[in-house]
Design brief:
By secondary structure, the protein is an alpha+beta fold. It has a domain of about 220 residues. Helices cover about 20% and strands about 25% of the residues. Strands 1, 2, 4, 5, 6, 7, 8, 9, 10 and 14 form a ten-stranded antiparallel beta sheet that branches. A two-stranded antiparallel sheet has the order 3-11. The longest helix is centred in the N-terminal third of the chain and has 54 residues. It starts with 7 loop residues before the first helix and ends in a 6-residue tail after the last strand. About 35% of the residues are buried.
């Protein structure tokens, strides 16, 4: 008697059951991969935020203000329309650029906010003068090509800005960069160079960020400080990542006066020059190349070069590609109102 074979119905049923098992297994594997990718992204964001917390803490603890004098009135001693305008006018009259400038980034004025979360809050840029570079990373190689036209940089605290730029890795997100600037607040490299070519990337995947200075009983989203009399009580930074991690940090501000790094002419009749803030500095160096540039034999007072009894001041004191270890955030990240991903 011939052996009975499978009917067409049995073959179709077996094929359907095998397909269900295979697609179920593929679905579980795909779900695990997506979950791993989300967890990896959250871990990366938390690591970047912990490093960023340390960088901000270092920046606010190493701020250098101009020495107080009768020639530099405080913001509350003047009568322009706003306290922000008062501080700018006071600093302009004294020919001293404020050591802290928090204002709306002019590149984003008149542009719709990237998300409803920003509301009326403008995208901000923070310019500070610190006695050491907050970001312990090597500056881009383009700084080695800067020519100061025979002038040199005096000893003193360098100036830089924290700014938000569109994140090239994720649409709709921002990356936070630190960029050194000249004593007058302009870029070291002008022309067709992109802002990211002269900056150091600190954090990415930022969906929202707000900085507020507290002085007296008021919060300021636009703020300037020049002397120790203008020092704020503390600083609050509110930040949310694309992964819906929310951070709220508060920092104290160090009270310290000193000289800002300036560009001077070494061929002047005297080697003594008055630095920013009215203090006197001496120059014995030869022409340099700007921040991060190599100091040649016999050069002194170049950016990043340590003087006797002086702390490191420039980015060249760092080891390439070795970030400093920073303390972690004092506030634990929490889920936003919308819930985690």
């Amino acid at each position: 008697m011939p052996r009975r074979g499978f009917t067409l119905l049995e073959v179709l049923l077996a094929t359907a059951m095998a397909s269900v098992v295979i697609f179920s297994a593929l679905g579980v594997m795909n779900m695990l991969q997506r979950s791993d990718a989300r967890l990896a992204g959250r871990y990366r964001s938390m690591t970047e935020m912990a490093t960023l917390h340390g960088l901000f803490n270092r920046a606010f603890q190493t701020l250098v203000f101009a020495p107080s004098s009768g020639a530099v009135p405080a913001a509350q001693d003047t009568q322009p329309l706003t306290a922000f305008g008062a501080a700018l006018a006071a600093a302009a009259d004294a020919q001293i650029r404020p050591r802290i400038i928090l204002t709306a980034d002019p590149r984003y004025l008149g542009i719709a906010p990237p998300s409803p979360e920003w509301g009326d809050q403008p995208i901000q840029v923070l310019e500070v003068v610190c006695d050491d570079v907050p970001a312990g990373y090597v500056l881009p190689p383009i700084f080695n090509q800067i020519d100061l036209g025979g002038q040199v940089l005096s000893g003193g605290a360098p100036r830089g800005v924290f700014e938000l730029l569109p994140d090239s890795d994720r649409d709709g997100a921002f990356a936070l960069w630190w960029r050194p600037v000249r004593p007058e607040g302009t870029a070291w490299v002008e022309g067709t160079v992109r802002p990211t070519d002269t900056a150091v990337r600190l954090a990415s995947n930022i969906a929202f960020m707000r900085i507020q200075f507290f002085r007296g009983d008021e919060r300021h989203v636009e703020f300037t400080a020049t002397t120790e009399r203008d020092i704020p009580a503390y600083v609050e930074i509110e930040l949310r990542t694309v992964d819906n991690l929310y951070f709220n940090w508060m920092f104290e501000v160090n009270k310290r006066a000193g000289v800002e790094q300036t560009i001077i002419d070494p061929n002047s009749q005297t080697n003594t020059t008055t630095g920013t803030g009215g203090e006197e500095t001496r120059n014995t160096g030869t022409p340099g190349r700007g921040p991060g540039g190599p100091a040649g034999p016999g050069t002194t007072n170049q950016p990043g070069q340590r003087q006797p009894g002086q702390r490191p001041q420039g980015p060249t004191t760092q080891t390439p590609n070795q970030p400093r270890q920073q303390p972690g955030p004092t506030t634990q990240p929490r889920e936003g109102p919308g819930g985690g991903p």
